[in-house]
Amino acid sequence: MASSDETPGQMPPGDGSVPPGKAMSVAQKAVDKGVQLIQSLKPMKQMGQHVCTFALYSHDLSRQIETHHYVARLNHDFLQCAVYDSDAPNARLIGVEYIVSEKIFDTLPPEEQKLWHSHAYEIISGLWVNPGVPEMVQKQELQQLSPTYGKFWCTWQVDRGDRLPLGAPALMVSPQGESMGTVKPELIRKRDEKYKISSEELGKSRVDVLVPENINPNADYWVQTGKGFAVDVEQVEMKKHSPFP
Predict the structure, then answer these.
(1) What is the percent of the chain with per-residue pLDDT over 70, rounded to a whole number?
(2) 29: closest CA among 89, 93, 92, 94?
């Protein structure tokens, strides 16, 4: 079992809905609404930004998806994102991305750094957007994010038709100016039309956003080596601390 392009096993029977299952009942909706009034849901309330951008599969850069990150900042140097396939109410949670500052990234072991990607290009190219937020408002945040690095695991490969989160997670990488790492024009056009923006014009307006003079060569590992990463799941003996029946 690997994070490959192989078609997953047989999908659950049903009407083709994604995910499979019956529509929520009125009673279920009422319970959810009631619980929301009682519980604090504090981690969710820390999500202060919605970012729309694009991601590529590390093992196959031709597979590209539009992503919607809902971002929570734990401190100045660390952010965590719940990643969805859209901004619709029924959006599917397809993964998680962690974002760290350059200062933290430089403390990571080289082998770990190879799993991370830079954000500078997707920001200055206009691919990274905060939908609905005026450019002048988000400029300061873009400047802070430009030198950061992210590690994004995709747990639900909806682009290949998976109706459920199947198989192993896939490591994702960020768009780059390299030919293999450029986002397909039709993906950008579709996103731009939805939000009534121009990624190209946004990129031109961000010429004053400073980018790192040198991006750590261990990040964006595929750019240097032409190699990506895939996750294999293997059966292993469990560690037993007591007799197992």
Answers:
(1) 91
(2) 89
Task: Give the residues across from 191 on adjacent strands.
Answer: none
Closest by CA to 159, choosing from 15, 21, 53, 62, is 62
Helix (H) or strand (E) holding 186: helix 185-195
- CB 128, CB 66: distance < 8 Å: no
19 φ, ψ (degrees, to nearest 5)? -75, 165
Give the Cα separation of 122 and 66 in Å (integer). 13
How does pLDDT run across 63-119, given as a tens digit for each residue? 999 999 999 999 999 999 999 999 999 999 999 999 999 999 999 999 999 999 999
Asked if residue 245 has a cis previous peptide bond (ω within 30° of 0), the answer is: no
**Phi-psi sector, 226: left (phi>0), alpha (psi -120 to 50), beta:** left
Q: What is the pTM of this model?
A: 0.89
List pLDDT tens digits, range 204-227: 999 999 998 889 999 999 999 999
Please name the amino acid found at residue 115.
Answer: L
